[in-house]
Protein 1
Amino acid sequence: MSRKIAGPEIERLVQLLARLPGLGPRSARKAVLALLKRRNDLLLPLTEALQQAIAKISECPVCGNLDTVSPCSICQDTRRDQGLIVVVEEVGDLWALERAGIVSARYHVLGGHLSPLDGIGPEQLNVASLIARAQSPEVKEVLLALNATVEGQSTAHYISDLLAASGVTVSRLAQGVPIGGELDYLDDGTLAAAFKARRKV
Ligand SMILES: [Zn+2]
C-alpha cells in the first residue's frame, strides 16, 4: 500500500490537474506545490480567473468557438468574408489560424474528429450544424482545415461527401514541405504528400 503523504484536499487538486492534457500525476503534483507556495500571486488570481471563466465564457451556438459574447465576436464581425467557412477540429486550431492572421473568414469548430473506435460519430461532433450553415446563400466555400492525421483526413472525406450536393466549393489545406523545411528531415508521409501535390512551375 502506498503511504498517504498529503491530505485529501491536496490529493484532489493533484487528481484534477492530472486530468489536463500534457500533465501526468508527477507534473500535476509539481503544479499543485507551486500553486500552494504562491498563494497570493498565483493561487488566488487563478481561482478568480477560473470563476470568471465559468461565469462568462460559453460555446458559440453558431460556430462552436469559446467567447464571452454569444454569438461569438468572430461570428458577429461583419467585416469578415461571409462567403467562407473554415472548418477546424478544435478551438485551439481556430486560435492558431487567428494568430497567424492569414484568413478573415468565419469558422466552424467540429469539437474533434470522427473516431468510431472511441464511439465518436457525426452525432458527437458539430457536423449537422455545419451542413445547415453551408446551405445559407452567402456561403460560397467551405475550407476543411482539419489535422493531417488519418482521423482528420477521414473526417474531411466524410464532410466533403455530405457537402457535395450543396453546391458550395469544398477545399482543404495543402500538404507538403513546410516553409524552411529540408527534404532530408521530412517524414515519409509528408514527403509523399508533397510529391502527390506537386505543381507546375
Ligand atoms: Zn461563433
Protein 2
Amino acid sequence: MKTINWGILGAARVNQRLLPAIENNHNSRILMLASRRNGAAEECVQQYAKNPEGIKTTTNFDEVINHPDINAIYIPLANEEHTEVALKSIAQKKHVLIEKPMALTKQEVKSITQAAKENNVIVMEGFMYVFHPQFDFVLDFINSGKLGKIQYAHSMFSFPIQPARYYRINRSIQDGGGALWDIGPYAIHTLRQVIRGHIKQVNATAKMNSHQADMSASGILEFTDKRRATFDVSFECTRRSEFEIFGEKGRLKCHTVWQHEDDEAIISYELDESAPVVEKIQKGNHFELEINHFVECIFNNKESNKLSMNDAIQQAALMEATYKSIQSNQWVSV
Ligand SMILES: NC(=O)c1ccc[n+]([C@@H]2O[C@H](COP(=O)([O-])OP(=O)(O)OC[C@H]3O[C@@H](n4cnc5c(N)ncnc54)[C@H](OP(=O)(O)O)[C@@H]3O)[C@@H](O)[C@H]2O)c1
C-alpha cells in the first residue's frame, strides 16, 4: 500500500486542523468527507482543505465506510457517536483514527479493540498532544530523574464556550455532553502520562447547567501508592491549557499543552536550590505529527507505541469512573 486514501465522517470544527495535516502527509490523500447536514461537508472542505477539488462530499456515512478505495477513516464526531461508526468502519477493514474520547465506556473501547484485532486494522485515539516536541521534552526531563520521584501533578484546561458551540452543552453528561467528555480526556490523559502508576480511585465533582451538562468539572485521582493528581476543566473560565508536575526535588510546568500549531511551546522548571529556568521549545504541529505516526503504524501493521489500545482501555476506565463519581458524589474505584 503506497497511498492511504482517507474518508472523514463528520463536518467537525477540528477538521480545520486535521484536513491540512492529512493533506500534508506525503502518503495520504483525502477521498471523501461526509456530513449528515446538507451542505455542511462542502462548506467544511471549502473552508479547511488546502486542495478541496479532489475531495468528494456526501450526506451518507455508509458511502464512505463502504468505499472500496478508502483504507483509513478519521472520526471527529460527537463523543457519544464514535463507537457505532468505528465498529462499522472496522468491519469494512478500515484503519480508524478516533478523536478523543474514543468512547464513553471501557466496554465500548474493549469491543473496538477486539474488532480491530479480528479485522487486522490499526485503531488509535486522537491525543495529538503526545506528539508535540514539548511533550518529549517533559518525558525526557522526568526520565532524567532531575525532579526525583513525581509525587503530584495538576492539569487545567478551560475556555469560555462560544454560542456557536452550545450544541455541545445542550445535552446531558449522561449523553456525552459537557466539559468532562470534551476537554476532560486531555487533562486526565496527561496526568496518567506524567505520573504513571496504577490509579486506584477517583473523586470528582461538577457544576451542571440546565441540560445537566457539566460546565466545569474537577477531580482527584488517587494512585495505589497514595500519590495524587488533580484536574480542573471548564467551559466558563478564562483560557488555561497547562499542567504542572511536582517531584521530590523540583517542579516543572508546561504552559500551553493542547494548543494550536502556531502557539509558543514554553516549559518552566525549578529544581531545589537552583534558579527558575524558562525553556522555549521548538514549535510543533502535533496534528501533522499525529497523522505521520498513524500512517507509519498502518505501513508497519503495528499499533501505536504511544497510544496503544491498552492505553485507550485504561483511559476509558478512568473517564467512566470519573463520570460515575460526579453522578454519585463518591469515590469510585477504577
Ligand atoms: N484533537 C483536538 O484538538 C480536538 C479538538 C476539538 C475536538 N476534538 C474532538 O473531536 C471530536 C469533534 O469535536 P469538534 O469540536 O471538532 O466537533 P463539532 O464541531 O462539535 O462537531 C462534531 C459533530 O457534530 C456535528 N455538528 C457540527 N456542527 C454542528 C452544528 N452546528 N449543529 C449540529 N451538529 C453539528 C458534525 O456531524 P455532522 O457533520 O454529521 O452533522 C460533527 O462531526 C470530538 O470527539 C472532540 O472531543 C478534538
